[in-house]
Amino acid sequence: MKKHTQFAHSDVNFNDSLPGISKDLLESLLAHNFPGRDHFITFYSNQNGGFFDGGAYIYREDFHTIKPGDHNLFGIEAFNFISTFEGQESARLLSKLKIIEYRTTAHKVNAKFLKENIPFAGDAGDNDFWLNTLTGSINYTITNELTIHPKTIFIAPDFRTFCDAIRGSLKPTREH
Q: Which among 28, 39, 65, 145 is most buried, taking Cβ atoms within 10 Å?
């Protein structure tokens, strides 16, 4: 199901969202007030996850100083859905609960990290984008590097900035 989305770039093709979640439920899941919280709640109350047909990309350089050797370009395959009932599934989307279960079982990620972070999106390589529910920052983990204490890559200062930076195509390459 294609729905109107809240992305700044018009070339983003975001589909197959589940119905939005009640704001009351989202507010109860996000106990702390952090930058971008209202945007996250609005986003997920309008659509619960979604798949980026044709791909989606984010460049850290759009809002962060990149040094040589830093990761800059990240692909995004989908936003995960938040289960609203036991056993809820989607043909194209992963649930937040399934990702947490897998990261706990397969990679022994610690409970404190999982309590403070929500795996809200992923890329085609099974890596995750996490919303830190204390600071609002968006971070990324490389799955094959996950441990009890995950090393994260800072992506964006908050959910709104993250969403505004998502584009449906790559930037043209620069001539040097």
A: 39
